[in-house]
Every structure is written in structure tokens, then in C-alpha cells.
Amino acid sequence: MAKPTQVSLPLDPAPATPAWVVQVALPVPVASLFDYLSTCAIAPGCRVLAPFGRRQLIGLVVACGRDSQVAATRLKPLTECLDTAPLLSPATLAVVQWATRYYAAPPGEMLAVLPKLLRTERTVAPRVQPCWALAPGADPTAGRGRRQQQLLELLARAAQPLTAADLTAQLGTGWQRCVPPLRARGLLAPAPAASAIPQPPATPHPIHPEAQQQAAVAAITAALARFQVFLLEGVTGSGKTEVYLLAVRAALERQLQVLVLVPEIALTPQTVARFRAALATPVVVLHSGLSDRERLDSWLLAQRGQAGVVIGTRSAVFAELPRLGLVIVDEEHDASFKQDAVGMRYSARDAVLVRAKQVGIPVVLGTATPSLESLHHAQSGHYHHLRLTERAQGARLPQVQLIDLNREPRLDEGLSATLIAAMRACLQRDEQVVIFLNRRGFAPVVVCQDCVWSSGCPQCDARMVWHKPHGELRCHYCGHRERHPPACPACQSPSGLRPAGEGTQRVEARLRALFPEYPLLRMDRDTIRGRVALEAAVTEVREQRARILVGTQMVAKGHDFHGVTLVGVLDIDGQLFSADFRAVERLGQTLTQVAGRAGRGAKPGQVLIQTRFPDHHALQAVRQGEDGYRHLAATELQQRKAAGFPPFGFLAVATARSRQPGAALAFLEQTRHQLAAPAGVELHGPVPPAMERLGGEYRAQLIAMAPERTPLRHFVATWSGVLAAQRPPLHLHWAIDVDPLTLN
């Protein structure tokens, strides 16, 4: 692909006829493209500057021709064409257009696939990055403070000076503040400037695959010239990353580029480090944690074909790679691949399948716990199912045991006597323990024993969580905070307030009292803020400086802790009976993933799950070990089929929200009266969701279900038009979510 130009092309304010009609996507919430006049043809995928009211907006050209449905006298001329060559290829642009249509998003959302600087700056000059190295004779242990020491140690290990992008990728943001004091002390020196291309290692790390890994790599590489979806289902610790790396090497040997999607920023640093150490090609990163300039640099390196591998989160699915030959989606089951908050509500996992099919390349969906959709496609023959059934290097899967809390005399701050005894034995053997509790804070609610008051959020139908170290009650949904009251706000009782339930802070405090001689680390969103803090925490556990790890979902995300032999799981019963149709599937995935942290080294592992419902089919399935999740999935698939839920049916949900009670429900009721659902599409509602009030707004939902995707897709197109035509008041907002992950 040609490089994007840095030169703008002025267009005549009054073009001569016959003029070209250019269709442009503009960043406005309008469900249409806009026609403009131009004296010359402009290729789709280029940026243009277009008049819009009193503003000049940067837009993306989608089509160019001679005709328009709008009279030529009403069309305005474009102000400038900002690129001499398209930024997006026809194939990429087609996928982006498909996404806006399928997910019922305004065409202007297409611009969101470009880095922010390309959406806001008319010209963008190439950047040359400064490099840094240790000063000659500098002591790499002379850092003052943890951040300075991390920077010095990283530069000491590097074989050559590192660019700012390299340092940010490995240390996160904030290292720049360490540069002035280190230079003043003569420990740090600038090196000759380099391009923004990360340099690959001179000698990539060797990879020695085992038999099942070799078979998986052979199947993937044999399909490099055609579209094929592989579900790589491997038990935790089976070496899926090694399969990825060997498949990537095969693609690189054919001069192809590779896109690797990971679900969260938290997983990016460790993935990037492994890929950069093992591949003889520049590896760049794309995610929201980068600065605007860093994101643009990575995007341009991919767009120009200079980066062989792009590793990114969900938005990277639309990155421009002219020689794209392989896509890998790691942890394909993870809900983070679905964008459902703002903007276009899309699934990166599904979008990448469309993109791969269009250009004829293979996709690898890797996980230990496949989503029911992917597992169903594999069982029905649409996906090629590859399995890794054994852990690498002879490690064994852990034994899973259920602790029946109905038989325990009492709990000690949420901890059973059985679990405490197992922890003590494990620690005395000089091993490590992980305690998983997916609830941060000290207690999920504060109640008054003298009346019926509880710590409800004034803006949500939710309880505020007590964060004891800060003396605050916090809502984890809308962010509202209050000081913990000295007395009951309802009855003024000075001694009736009590915390109910346990969060990670409460469990941490009790474990520190029970095991004061063993270092303890807590990992949740309150203690881990940013990539640097996460990497520091993970390193502390890997080096076994922390003997006890207490954490939320963070501890289950693919970490490789060889010293951990015991995992304790607390308070998971609520998910067993959730109204969310995916709740049991997600619980099985979470338990399997967190259990996979145990026994990854030479010593066997054990998992203890506390529950009051030990006979529940989900828990009985998980305790079966390697095939446990498969048994759970089989049961859930039967129930989904009977109910017509995905993957045996398709859903779309229209959600309206307003600060006025009843307004959202009335809006959707009015809409339904104007909708005639076609054959094969059922409408349910409108009804309030389980949590009607969220962030001070009242919500309502209208749900569409269909056994086939095509009639639902056509209905959604009509549906969005009807909703837009209602002209709702300014206080009311609506959105359609196609293929929602939840109905709550």
C-alpha cells in the first residue's frame, strides 16, 4: 500500500461541471453519508476536509461517482483532499462498512477506526523517536525509587539503545519523569535518534514444540493461503502461545503480516514481550493505553507494511495491514472483545472472521474455555477443531475439590477452616497460594442491625460497597462516593452499622492476621492501576516474593505462576442462579481459568472451591478436571437450544435511557406500536432491565429474537430507522446492541 501523504490538495470552491460526487462519512450521529462535489475523483479510504454547517470536519471518503440523489445545486464542494493515496484498502473499508451496517451504527463511526490524530489533524509528519541508553560506566543499581530502578535495569539488559515506544511498551507511561533526575546524576544518556520501528532481536528465542503443538501448527500453516477458522482448545498451561509463535513464523517466512488480538490491555505487555523475543520482525502494539502519538506511530508502521506483527485489543481488528495473512484471537471467549459501552457496539471476534473471509486467510481462535458459539461451530464442522489436552513440559492439571459450606461450623471472614488449613500446609512447604474473590472493596454492603437501612446508591438500583481504607462507600456501577456514616442515616443508631459479606480488602486483612510471616499481595482495580503496576505485581508473584496472592478477575488472566500450587475460590454462588443467560458459561470459564493458575510448575496443584450448592451441575462439571468445562458446555448448549438463545438463535436489544421516570419505557412502547416484526422475528417487551436505574437514568429494553441471522439483520435496519424517526427529546438516548452478551 502506498504511504499516506502529508500534502493537502486544495479543491476549487466552485468546481466546473461535470463534477464528481464524493460520498463522505462524517463524525456526526446521523445515519447517512453526505454527498459533496469535487473537481477530481477521490479514492475511497482517503480523508477529506468538508464543510458541515459552520464547521470544517475531517471525513472519510466511502465512494466516488457522478450521480447523487441530492440536486447538484444543493451540494457543497469539498474544501480539501488530505491524502494522495487511501489510508484504508478497499478490503478494510468494506469490513468497516459491514460493521456499521450489521451493528446499526451511524456511518460516521467508520472514522473511529483511524487513530485520533488522523481524525483531528489535517497533516501528520513522520516522527523520529529519541533513544536512551545507560551512560558509560553508570551503575544500573543506582536508581532512587522503584520507577527509576526499573528504567535503569531495563536499559542495562537491552542490547542496544531503546526508543520511547520500546520503553513505554515495557514500562508503561510515567517513565519519562525519571529521565531528568537520572540525566542530572550522569546515569542516563541520549542515543542517536531512531525510527519508530521496534528492532527485533538478533537471535530469536528457540521454540521446541511437543507432538500436539506440532500437529496444530502444521494444520494452521497448511491453510495460510485460504480462509479457515481454527478453534485451538488447549487446557491451561498447554502451550497455546508456542503454537501461535510457530504459526506466525511460518506466515512471516511468506512475507505476510499477522494480527494478534488480546482481550485486555493487562495481557498486552507479557504477550508483546514473548512475541518480540521469539520473532525476527518488528512487533507493534495498538490499544487505548497508548498516547495518541504512539498509537499513530504503530498504526502507520502496520499500514506501510513495516511491522510484521500487530498486537492489540479489540479496536485493532480494523487496523490496516496490506499483507495480512493470519489472524490470532487469544482468549477468544473473553467478553472484553465486545464493545458495548459507547460508539459502535461490535464484536471484534466476529468482525475479524468477516475480515478474514473477505481476504481469504486463516483465523486461530485460542482458549482453554471456548465460548459456546465457537464450540458449537466446531462441533458442527464450520470450524476446524484443534485440541491440546496435556500441559507442556509434563506439568499436571490440578485436582479440584468442593468445600461444602453447609458442613463448615462457621466462616472466618469468608474463609473456611478447610481452606485455612490447606493454605497453612501449602505455605509451610514453601509454595504459593492464590485466593480468588471477584468482589473488590471491604464489604459489598453496609446494613443497620437496628432497622432496615442498607447502603444503597442514590443514583443506581445497586448497593454501595464499603472501601474501609478510604472510609468511603462507593458504587461500582456509576462511581458515586460518600463518606461512611458515623451512625445509621435512618434510625441514627450509633452502633448498629455492620459490614455484610466480604470483599478483597476484608479477606486481605484477615489473611495478614492469620499468616503475618508470609508476604501478601492484593491484585484488584484499587491496587493495580496501569500497566506498570500490573507488571510489577506479576513480577513479584513470579519471583515468589509474594507468597499469598488475593485478587479479582485479574489473577485469572493467563498468568504463568510456577510457584502456585493452591487456589482458593470464594463466594461464587451468586452466579449459579443469575438471570443472565450466559452466567453459568462465564462462571465455568472463570473457574477453569483461575484453577489453571495452580500446578503449572513441577509440583502438583490443588483447587478448593467454597460453595453452599456443591450439587449444582456447573460445579460438578468443573471438578471433573480436563473435560469438566466440556461437560458444562454440553449441558448449557442443550438449555440454550431449548430456549432459542445463541448459538441457536440471534438477539438484538434496543435500550433507551432517560433521567425522567417512565420516559424510556414510553418511548420504546411508542416505537413497538410502529414496528411490524416480520416472520421469524419475535419482539419481547419493552421491559425494565434487572437494574432499571443506573447512573441516575431510568432504562428500558425491547428485545428482538430470531432463529436465523438474516431476517433479524433486515429487521434491525428498519428498527433503527423507526427509532431515529421518533425524534426523542434531548434527555432521552437510545442504542441498539446486536448480538448482546447480556440482557441485564
Description:
α6 (211-221) packs parallel to α7 (240-253) and α16 (583-595) packs antiparallel against α18 (628-643). The chain is α/β, with parallel strands linked by helices and 744 residues long.
Quick tags:
six-stranded antiparallel β-sheet, 29% helix, 20 helices, 744 residues, alpha/beta
What is the helix tally? Answer: 20
User: Over the alpha carbons, how many angstroms does the gyration radius reach?
Assistant: 28 Å
Gross morphology: globular
Approximate helicity band: 25-40%
Strand order of the largest sheet: 12-13-11-14-15-10-16
Low-confidence stretches: 1-10, 12-16
By helix and strand content, what is the structural category?
A: alpha/beta
| Average predicted confidence as pLDDT | 88
Number of strands: 32
- Summarize the biggest pleated sheet: 7 strands, parallel
Percentage of residues in DSSP E strands: 15-25%
Q: What is the terminal-to-terminal distance?
A: 44 Å
Q: What's the SSE blueprint?
A:
Layout: E1 9-10, E2 20-25, E3 34-38, E4 47-52, E5 55-65, E6 80-81, H1 90-102, H2 116-120, E7 128-134, H3 146-157, E8 162-163, H4 164-171, H5 179-184, E9 188-195, H6 211-221, E10 228-234, H7 240-253, E11 257-261, H8 268-278, E12 283-286, H9 292-303, E13 309-312, E14 324-330, H10 348-359, E15 362-367, H11 372-379, E16 384-388, E17 399-404, H12 417-428, E18 432-436, E19 445-448, E20 465-467, E21 472-474, E22 481-483, E23 497-500, H13 504-514, E24 520-523, H14 531-542, E25 548-551, E26 564-569, H15 573-576, H16 583-595, E27 606-611, H17 617-622, H18 628-643, E28 650-658, H19 663-673, E29 682-687, E30 693-694, E31 697-706, H20 709-725, E32 732-738
Parallel strand pairs: 10-15, 10-16, 11-13, 11-14, 12-13, 14-15, 17-27, 18-25, 18-26, 24-25, 26-27
Antiparallel strand pairs: 1-6, 2-3, 2-5, 4-5, 4-6, 7-8, 7-9, 19-23, 20-21, 21-22, 28-31, 28-32, 29-31, 30-31
